[in-house]
Amino acid sequence: MENFIRTELMLFHKLGIDNKGVVQIAGLGFQSPKVYKGRKFACRALKGKGVQSGIRVIYAYFEEKDRIELVEIYYKGDKENEDRERIIRRYG
């Protein structure tokens, strides 16, 4: 998780560098907080896959407070997409 924070979140939210590892989830029906999916997440338990591990990290970013709330982590092999209903219930 520390690598993800340092390499993806810092690049995207602090430095404005988009390396296609973080995408905003559209169509949730609310403006704030913005909810993102992190796709480039290396996992030691899945050796040999690197950032193509299939791990997804869903989080809400509160820009005004510069705060992140973790919503969900899942393996793409077990679940295709984020739980949109859960996100809307929590933030919508």
Catalogue the unreliable spans: none
Let me know the average pLDDT. Answer: 86
What structural category do the secondary elements indicate?
alpha+beta
Ends apart, CA distance between termini: 26 Å
Question: Helical content, roughly?
Answer: 10-25%
- Tally the helices: 2
Order of helices and strands: HEEEEH
Under the CATH scheme, which class? Alpha Beta
Number of domains as seen in the coordinates = 1
**What best-fitting shape do the alpha-carbon axes yield?**
globular
Strand order of the largest sheet: 1-2-3-4
Write the layout of secondary structure elements.
Layout: H1 2-14, E1 22-24, E2 34-38, E3 55-62, E4 67-75, H2 84-91
Antiparallel strand pairs: 1-2, 2-3, 3-4
Describe the protein:
- With 92 residues, the chain is an alpha+beta fold.
- It has helices at 2-14, 84-91, and strands at 22-24, 34-38, 55-62, 67-75.
- The chain has a 4-stranded antiparallel β-sheet.
- The longest helix is centred in the N-terminal third of the chain and has 13 residues, at 2-14.
- 16% of the residues are buried.
Keywords for this entry:
four-stranded antiparallel beta sheet, 4 strands, 92 residues, alpha+beta, single chain, 27% strand
Summarize it.
The chain has 92 residues and is of the alpha+beta class. The chain has helices at residues 2-14, 84-91, and strands at 22-24, 34-38, 55-62, 67-75.
